[in-house]
Write a structure and sequence with these properties.
Layout: H1 2-32, E1 36-42, E2 48-54, H2 76-84, H3 91-97, E3 101-103, H4 113-121, E4 130-132, H5 134-137, H6 145-157, H7 161-172
Parallel strand pairs: 3-4
Antiparallel strand pairs: 1-2
Amino acid sequence: MLRVFDFLFSFLGLLFGFPVLLVIFLIGIFDTGSPLFVHERVGRGKRPFKLVKFRTMSKDTASVASHLASSASITKLGGFLRRTKLDELPQLWNVLMGDMSLVGPRPNLFNQEDLINAREALGVYSVRPGITGLAQIKDIDMSTPELLAKTDAEMISSMSIANYFKYIFQTVAGKGQGDTVRH
């Protein structure tokens, strides 16, 4: 049932959000020369998939988790996109294609071994990764792998249609700060 909501909302989001996506894309061309960021992430069943986001950091930034990146690498447009969470909009394509859900554990990089081990032990990879979820609402990011995996497992075990909508509405209302970037 949740997959039906994912498909419907991502389709409508891409359809009606297209003008916003286009404007951000065009501004991004002037900001970094490459407005989209496509990166391989760990998906359901630990299978790789290509995550799509708006680029918020300069193109030469090392491929590391956000909490390990320097805030100096975030562009002016990128700072705005992160604060407003608009950098996440292209992931609606990942949701539409079935690689992600609107609600689920945030997809991690393959080089985050501590997080992979913690999540694997708790069965977190049994579901599609998501754009938002309980950990994002609680401001738990990938800098605390055990706590993140535990929170993800808690969300999975208590997932319901009501919680699905609760996490989406809380995210849209601005709850949670997103991934931490060191200063």
